[in-house]
Design a protein that fits this description.
Keywords: Signal
Helix content: 25-40%
Strand order of the largest sheet: 5-4-1-13-14-15
InterPro entries: CDP-alcohol_PTase-I, HAD-like_sf, HAD-SF_hydro_IIA, HAD-SF_hydro_IIA_CECR5, HAD_sf
Protein name: Haloacid dehalogenase-like hydrolase domain-containing 5
Structural class: alpha/beta
Number of strands: 15
Order of helices and strands: HHEEEHEHEEHEHEHEEEHEHEHHEEH
Shape: globular
Pfam family, one: Hydrolase_6
Distance between the termini: 52 Å
Family: Belongs to the HAD-like hydrolase superfamily.
Radius of gyration: 23 Å
Length: about 450
């Protein structure tokens, strides 16, 4: 019960801080100028954009993206609808990503429109006072502190404190006499932000921490379960400038899971799996959409979300999973109302979502006000999924998978129907045009 109440308080803290930020932004002329008010909008909707493979390929903008965003803003650069960028990248700060997008798309993008894979960690307040080991690249220590973690240890700090742990690279081995071990406070949890640069170093030291209950100067033990592990970004593959996809953090997780099981015989367990396709990621993104709608001056709740992505396993699976969650929430509410009115209760035959699919924070979901009616998924062919490599089915009701091989995380169900997009289009420009046509909104 302590964990449940902690998560709930974290969610309320996050919600209140977002609402407070929204009120502040509404009074700030420097940020409110980015939006155009549609107070009488008949069917409010919001757009969730993936970035890699949808808007950019590495450092190169996809040509259709610039045209798309020229259509999404008016002649003064004001947005027409709520827009949030939902990416599984996590090796930078939101401000940095917002500046990068602003430059690439030639429209102003604010940090509160950007959601990185690790953003929902703000609500996991029960870990914020623990000593956490963080893995990834970029300013991971700064990112961790920004998310609320107070006692942070990086992989570099760990290898400097225990010089004999990292010995694969002979050039990094201690020269001459063996330096003394400095020692660190015991590590209480491990946070995996994204793929590191030196995989062998991170894999070795993370396993050391897990097998010594957070104290790498101790002997390996068999205590199980191990200390908590929270992982962000499960993408097996992602698309950069190369013709073929590149390994993502999901591949690093596969390596870590395999190593841990090979050494111990046990399955590596996650306290939380965050980032697309987990439900907690989309629930957080929907909260940011609400923020944007408030800045637009909308008084009617957003009714529909459209998630645009290039990865069937991450973007499409995640949007569809969140849509299932929304339908289940509305169904539960209707059943409670029917039961209170003396009407016979119907039985929901849909499979229950696992803790992993919910993001490890199932207790924060409940009677959320003004939930959207649904979330539609739109697959573009400019990234992981491409017409050049895979034949596009003429019937979009057919399941689209990545060569019919499940590229999802080990702890997620293999449900082909969740990788079936609501719509398939060539690029992001066509996607936005389709959405505005569906909603009956003028785009010009």
């Amino acid at each position: 019960m302590q964990r449940i109440s902690s998560l709930k308080s974290g969610w309320q803290l996050l919600k209140s801080s977002c609402e407070g930020a929204a009120k502040q932004v509404n009074t700030s002329p420097s940020t409110s100028r980015n939006y155009i008010i549609h107070s009488q909008a008949p069917t409010p909707f919001g757009l969730l954009f993936d970035i890699d493979g949808v808007l950019v390929r590495g450092r190169t903008p996809i040509p259709a993206a610039k045209q798309c965003f020229r259509n999404l803003v008016d002649r003064n650069g004001k947005y027409k609808v709520p827009v949030v960028f939902v990416t599984n990248a996590g090796n930078c700060m939101r401000q940095t990503k917002a500046e990068h997008l602003s430059h690439m798309l030639e429209v102003e993008v604010s940090p509160d429109q950007v959601m990185l894979s690790h953003s929902p960690l703000r609500m996991f307040t029960q870990f914020h006072k623990m000593c956490v080991l963080v893995s990834g690249q970029g300013p991971v220590e700064e990112v961790a502190h920004n998310l609320g973690f107070q006692d942070v240890v990086t992989i570099d700090m760990l290898r400097e404190a225990y010089p004999l742990l990292d010995v694969v690279d002979h050039n990094r081995r201690p020269k001459g006499s063996i330096p003394p071990t400095k020692g660190l406070r015991p590590i209480d949890a491990v946070i995996l932000f994204g793929e590191p640069i030196r995989w062998e170093t991170n894999l070795q030291l993370i396993v050391d921490v897990l097998l010594t209950n957070g104290s790498p100067d101790n002997n390996w033990g068999t205590q199980y379960p191990h200390i908590p592990v929270l992982a962000c970004n499960m993408d097996l593959l992602w698309m950069a400038e190369a013709k073929n996809p590149r390994f993502g953090h999901g591949m690093f997780l596969v390596c870590l899971e395999s190593l841990y099981k090979k050494v111990t015989g046990y399955e590596l367990k996650y306290e939380a799996l965050i980032g697309k396709p987990s439900v907690v990621t989309y629930n957080y993104a929907e909260l940011l959409i609400r923020q944007q709608a408030e800045k637009l001056g909308w008084t009617t709740p957003v009714k529909r979300l459209y998630a645009i992505g290039d990865n069937p396993m991450a973007d499409i699976y995640g949007a569809n999973l969140y849509n299932h969650y929304l339908q289940a929430s509305h169904s539960t509410k209707a059943q409670k109302q029917a039961k209170s009115g003396g009407v016979a209760e119907t039985v929901d035959s849909a499979p229950k979502m696992t803790s992993a699919e919910l993001g490890g924070a199932s207790s924060v979901y409940g009677a959320e006000e003004d939930l959207p009616e649904g979330c539609s998924s739109i697959l573009v062919c400019t990234g992981v999924y491409s017409r050049d490599q895979q034949e596009l089915p003429s019937d979009t009701s057919q399941t689209v998978t990545e060569q019919h091989i499940f590229h999802g995380h080990r702890d997620f169900r293999f449900d082909p129907s969740l990788m079936q997009p609501s719509f398939v289009v060539q690029d992001v420009k066509e996607a936005v045009e389709l959405v505005f046509q569906q909603e009956g909104w003028p785009l010009e």
